[in-house]
Specification:
Blueprint: H1 12-41, E1 44-48, H2 52-66, E2 71-75, H3 81-87, E3 93-98, H4 99-109, E4 114-121, E5 124-127, E6 142-146, H5 149-161, E7 166-167, E8 180-182, E9 188-192, E10 206-210, H6 211-216, E11 226-227, E12 236-241, H7 249-258, H8 261-271, E13 276-277
Parallel strand pairs: 1-2, 1-3, 6-9, 6-10
Antiparallel strand pairs: 3-12, 4-12, 4-13, 5-10, 5-11, 7-8
Main location: membrane
Keywords: Lipoprotein, Membrane, Palmitate, Signal
Family: Belongs to the NlpA lipoprotein family.
Length: 279
């Protein structure tokens, strides 16, 4: 009604314009809802390496599926591609590396990744198909360690723990072959990709092997001549993601499911001390 008391009639073009705007808003809201629904229906993708890593995360994925959270586990056979896949957004997270390995990968390749939560501790051992005791290692024997910086350092520290070599004090995660100060048995060290070390046991006297790959090759971790133990959380395997995905509700829900009594019981029953929960 106008100031003069007369009713105003809205013109047809004005009414049509308002109806069009209202329709566009409704369509936009519908589209947002459809996108959100589609994203919620998409499975969470987790990259893992073969053996216990893939098995552990797949068991948790089965638990998650029962709770309405679909999870797809993608297995890679090397220790580089899982970080590449997460960094480029092909998968939401990976499950195969500890913090020292992640830090070295970020430094070497510039990945934008963060550790989200600890999962399990998996020891590394010295194994052999040729000797039954460290005392049986002969002078000049060829032995193998990992060729990536952090796991090579972990292996060298294990050889030092075994009394086969001495390292410079304080080298820690930065230890290299150049840091060997005493090598009484004149061991010949070769470096190999970590996934290949279990297969090298027929060719070398002793090799550093992650329990993950040793189990995947059908080996018994109880056969280790020595190991670095299960309680060192410095080497706890982490869930790793991009910073923008680290607080994703689906990922956090899955981590909570992984860090559950059901998953703990499964790992303990199947792997004993070879794969220890780190939460």
């Amino acid at each position: 009604m106008s100031a003069s008391g007369e009713f105003e009639i809205e013109t047809q073009p004005g009414l049509a314009r308002r109806m069009l705007i209202a329709g566009l808003i409704a369509l936009a809201l519908c589209a947002v809802g459809l996108i959100a629904s589609a994203n919620a229906a998409q499975p969470l993708t987790i990259a893992a390496t073969p053996g216990p890593m893939a098995d552990a995360v797949q068991h948790a994925a089965d638990l998650a599926d029962k709770q309405g959270l679909p999870v797809k586990v993608i297995v890679f056979s090397d220790w580089v591609t899982p970080n590449v896949a997460v960094n480029e957004g092909s998968v939401e997270a990976n499950f195969y590396e500890h913090k020292p390995f992640l830090a070295a990968a970020i430094k070497a390749r510039g990945f934008k990744l963060v550790a989200v939560a600890p999962a399990v501790i998996m020891p590394v051992g010295l194994f052999s198909h040729k000797v039954k005791s460290l005392n049986d290692v002969k002078d000049g024997a060829t032995v193998a360690v990992a060729n990536d910086p952090v796991n090579r350092a972990r292996g060298l520290q294990l050889f030092a723990k075994a009394g086969l070599i001495t390292l410079k004090p304080g080298v820690g995660d930065g230890a290299t072959l150049h840091d060997i100060t005493v090598n009484p048995k004149h061991l010949n060290f070769i470096e190999l990709p970590a996934p290949q070390l279990a297969r090298a046991l027929d060719d070398v006297t002793v090799a550093q092997v992650s329990y993950s790959f040793f189990l995947a090759s059908g080996g018994d971790p109880n056969a280790a001549l020595i190991s670095d133990g299960t309680g060192n959380k410095h080497y706890a395997i982490q869930f790793v993601a991009r910073p923008q995905d680290a607080t994703d509700p689906k990922l956090l829900k899955f981590i909570k499911i992984f860090q559950s009594d059901d998953e703990r019981a499964y790992l303990t029953q199947k792997y004993g001390n070879a794969v220890m929960p780190a939460w």
